[in-house]
Design brief:
Layout lengths: L2 H4 L10 H4 L2 H28 L7 H14 L1 H30 L2 H14 L11 H39 L1 H23 L4 H23 L3 H24 L2
Helix pairs in contact: 3-5, 4-10, 5-7, 6-7, 7-8, 9-10
């Protein structure tokens, strides 16, 4: 369906906007976001419905939703900034579909870059034609599809292992989620440190602000501060890094 309208254009033309903003791509992008919104509504309703079964008060459910919303600010800002920079390469529908859906700008750009290189072109360069755009967009779509396919195949397998592990040692199951989160965020943080001194300062400031917020929240039993601590750390760090960059 996607490729059919593209074949009506000139594959050798460097005017990628002729195909990058076609109504079909816009319809696909809006359809994907409609599915995401529907999923969100269903998940929220499922969580609210399951709460009484685990004796979780609705106040804690609402608190969890607020904490999740605040925690998404940082990653969302990062994705938005990268997405804006990629609009000139892929057009708005493709960026909404790939970067907005998957959220991994690095993986999507790498897929598009590899696909372009195999055709002897560079993203945004003189050889970046409609044909290269179509191949790069297809590569990004296949990359995202493999992620979903891996999840569909591996999650049922890992679920069987989880049951076995929970039977033999329940304590490990309580530690695994925390260990996984620590490992993932530690890897992301360590990868930023060698880039520049500003990155190191940003990590130190964000860790310090986060630690202070959590200490105050625990000391004075301020649940709202615990929920907003990540958002506060992000805003303080972004402001600090801005002034360090501008030298103000």
């Amino acid at each position: 369906m996607i490729l059919s309208p593209l074949t009506l254009t000139d594959p050798k033309s460097s005017d990628i906007w002729e195909i990058a903003n076609t109504p079909l791509l816009w319809a696909c992008a809006l359809g994907v976001f409609a599915v995401i919104i529907l999923q969100t509504v269903l998940y929220v309703r499922a969580a609210r419905g399951a709460a009484p079964g685990i004796e979780m008060p609705m106040s804690e459910v609402r608190s969890s939703f607020r904490a999740g919303a605040v925690a998404s600010i940082g990653p969302s800002l990062a994705v938005v900034i990268v997405a804006i920079s990629l609009l000139a390469l892929f057009g708005t529908p493709a960026v909404l579909l790939r970067i907005g859906l998957v959220g991994s700008a690095g993986a999507e750009t790498a897929s598009a870059g590899i696909a372009s290189t195999t055709m002897g072109a560079e993203l945004g360069g003189s050889g970046y034609t409609q044909q290269v755009f179509a191949v790069a967009f297809t590569a990004m779509s296949l990359s995202g599809a493999m992620w979903m396919l891996s999840a569909l195949i591996l999650i049922p397998i890992l679920k069987r292992g989880k049951k076995t592990l929970a039977t033999r040692n329940p304590a490990i199951m309580a530690l695994l989620p925390t260990a996984a989160l620590l490992g993932a965020f530690s890897m992301l943080t360590i990868a930023e440190l060698p880039k520049s001194a500003v990155h190191v300062v940003a990590v130190v400031i964000s860790a310090g602000v986060m630690g202070i917020c959590l200490f105050i929240a625990k000391r004075f039993d301020l649940r709202w501060l615990r929920e907003w601590s990540l958002g506060i750390a992000i805003l303080v760090t972004l402001t600090s890094v801005y002034f360090i960059h501008t030298g103000s």
